[in-house]
Amino acid sequence: MLAPRRRPRYRETPMELDVVELSRLQFAMTAMFHFLFVPLTLGLSALVAIMETVYVMTGRPIWRQMTKFWGMLFGINFAIGVATGITMEFQFGMNWSYYSHYVGDVFGAPLAIEGLMAFFLEATFVGLFFFGWDRLKPVQHLMVTWLVAIGSNFSALWILIANGWMQNPVGAEFNPDTMRMEMTSFTEVLFNEVAQAKFVHTVSAGYVTASVFVLGVSAWYLLKGRHTRLARRSITVAASFGLASALSVVVLGDESGYSASHTQKMKLASIEAMWETHPAPAPFTAFGLPDRAARETHYAIEIPWVMGLIGTRSTTEIIPGIDELVAEADARIRSGLIAYDALMTLRADRADAPQVIRDRFERHSADLGFAMLLKRYVDDPRDATEADIAMAADDTVPGVAPIFWAFRIMVALGFAFIAMMVYFFWRSSFRQQSYPRWALRIAVAMIPAPWIAAEMGWFVAEYGRQPWTVDGVLPTALSVSHLGVSDLLFSLAGFFLFYTVLFVVEMGLMLKYIRKGPFEDVEETEAWEARHEHRLSTHDGRGPFADAAINPAE
Amino acid sequence: MILHELIDYDVLRVIWWLLLGVLLIGFAMTDGFDMGVGALLPFVGRTDVERRVAINTVGPVWEGNQVWFILGGGAIFAAWPPLYAVSFSGFYLAMFLILAALIVRPVAFKYRSKRDGTAWRTTWDWALFAGGAVPALVFGVAVGNVLQGVPFELTPELFSLYPGGALAKLFGLLNPFALLCGAVSLSMLVTHGAAWLALKTEGVVAARARAIGSVTGLLTPAGFVLAGLWLSVGIEGYAFAGEVATDGPSNPLYNDVVRTASWMTAYAERPWIAIAPLLGLAGMGMAWLGMRAGREVSTLLWSKLGIFGAISTVGLTMFPFLLPSSRHPNSSLSVWDSSSSHLTLFTMLVATVIFMPLILLYTAWVYRVLWGKVTEADVADNSHSY
Lengths: 554, 386
What we know:
The complex is a heterodimer of chains A (554) and B (386). With 554 residues, chain A is mainly alpha-helical. Chain A has helices spanning 17-58, 61-95, 97-131, 138-167, 186-190, 193-224, 228-263, 265-271, 306-312, 322-348, 355-364, 368-372, 386-395, 400-430, 437-445, 449-463, 485-516, 522-537, 546-550; strands spanning 172-175, 180-183, 284-291, 296-303, 468-470, 474-475. Chain A is built from 19 helices and 6 strands. In chain A, strands 1-2 form a two-stranded antiparallel sheet. Chain A has a two-stranded antiparallel ribbon with strand order 3-4. The longest helix of chain A has 42 residues, at 17-58. Chain B is mainly alpha-helical and 386 residues long. Chain B has one domain (3-381). In chain B, strand 1 (153-154) and strand 2 (160-161) form a beta hairpin. At the A-B interface, helix 2, helix 3, strand 2 and helix 17 of A face helix 3, helix 4, helix 5, strand 2 and helix 7 of B. Chain A: The chain crosses the membrane at residues 31-57, 69-87, 107-131, 143-166, 199-223, 235-253, 403-426, 438-461, 488-509.
């Protein structure tokens, strides 16, 4: 049984606000840095695999050179993606120890399966991608490349299942014996609608990133008049792949919005800076200055109906505003207090707590997390005053203005990518791959844009989830480890130093290899072209397609 | 769904304890030689091309090898959440050191040979040295501390307290016994790396690796025996005070734990576990003999057996404990009270049964494709080599 113990020291331990703030800063910094490399890895692996497929199917040497060139840039990027990913996997335990205990039963599983199913695959084969050119047959090497691409994409799937659960914690319930959330249904966690919507949205964003990158670098070559054959082909691939991805990233982002309308109402209301509930269908605020203190959005330019249609896909369903949601949180805090009180009784008398208490806990346990919001103000939530409850309810509103703006920047960029891809797709398909110089310059200037959009998207998703680490279940302020400020300052300084050096080094290498350009074996390419011309223009007694059948590898 | 009740909770816990061992051993056997090669790099290679040969023996495989470690972390998170929460936060700065090494290492592999210039390459060489030597040492130090118990305690909410300033906690880990364990671990992985280099290279690099491996190959079993003697006379063990429900809820505070005179009582209760240290010593000894005799393949295999024996020894000696608490023994984490739920353990087992054989198959295929010595000519010819 329980040994005699001191009172829990929440006040002195997880509630040191500095540690919470520093832990958040460190996690945000390392996560956003990690995501500078992930989208390019996701997209470039797929683009490289497509290029190599063309090579294996046609045998044209230039497609192998393209594969090797973009593959080299992929490799430089992949190394840092892996290195910074390890930090992410370990930081939960290092900095978010109570979180790890509290939800590890649910959250750990997708992370571990990611390693088993995806990361092992991509990491094992990425070595062969670089070292296997001379040791493997072309088809075998192509298979290796595709496995790397599939591995990266599966990796994203499992990470987003884990993240999706933080946004919409389905398939789990609190177990008073173990003081944590436990999984009740793996399939619910797996097919969490938020996770599925996030996965396709994020992966498409990765494809757009790589397409814009390939397009921009190729445009730079065309402006310089270098490697034009390789650049034109790369633009064709990037524009068609990018067009499909840019369309899907917007359409599937809309899917995310729809799922948020019934899972994370507060996030949606903050994105819209919608303080009051509007009669359905609600308008969309295209522009405005959200003001938290006055609880209104100044100078708002509203487009009628649009928000209601996107959020609910109906003209009658109502999207609740922030004020209404705060009132809802207030009620859930009170319900959570009943659960908390029952939990304390259960814990004091584990063996024979009366059934009525168990039932009471069951009825209110879904709101337990809301009672824990009070720990910010009092040691024992049951001691909370009306004022504490009101403050805790108000805490459920995230920072509205930054979310409002980040979201609008992301969406505007999303539409810009569609316009860019449509234009280049049209020039490449119907205008003999001729591109005006102004368009090429814009393509070069657009290179950083997808990264900005992706970081903004993650900002909306994660900052918009506050004050929770797991929405409605565990407050961020309670999730941290028992660390001192000195621990945090040391690791923050360390990460900052390492990551800055890595960033400088990786940018330097990327630029060096882009400037250097691909290795083009002109003789090999021209010899192939000559044979090809010959095959097309003569029959040699066998017809133009006879050769292909005899020697399909060429 | 009641499918998971096909396997009893306590059986699943033992299975996951075994799988944790498999992952740690898999990590030490594969990424172990990568770290060993890193730690040996400045000594086996004097010229740039010699170092490139050494680096390129692990160049194509280290990424896959490192996943054993990442998967180990993920598996601890998923199967033993309290262990993950307590150890990673308690060993905060030590974990940061490992992370720093693991961040620098991949980048050093990739970037070292992408620019000319002595300063650039020498810097990355030392990064590779630290990236190999530091984790190899820190892992051993961690094991040494786990055997002694770690000063954490759990609140009734199962929040893990680990008091102390940042540096005080780090230096608290660096006690003599833990440092001895760290030295054994470093020496073991350096030997493993030397065995790998002897197999994958020829000429002067292989000769230097064998020379160093012949020394560390003897230090490893000597240190292992010394640590064993120290453990039996100088370090207290832990035991449950009463009956333990092996399929009870995962709450460490439900069980009472007391200190015992020594961990060695485990060998009185379960004499068969002595096979683990014996296998370990046999492997280490044969690896040393093989290294001196210049046998390439068998030396590496014997070295793997030594690693297998050493890690199994620690696990079996402590069973069922995973992480004892010296500050508050009742907080100690064990196999019976620190696992995930029945359903999660079962789900994870299904995933492992499906994917682990596939992983072993394709890893074996990759090693087969890359079979053969790495020579100076290979390094010069391949534009993708590191």
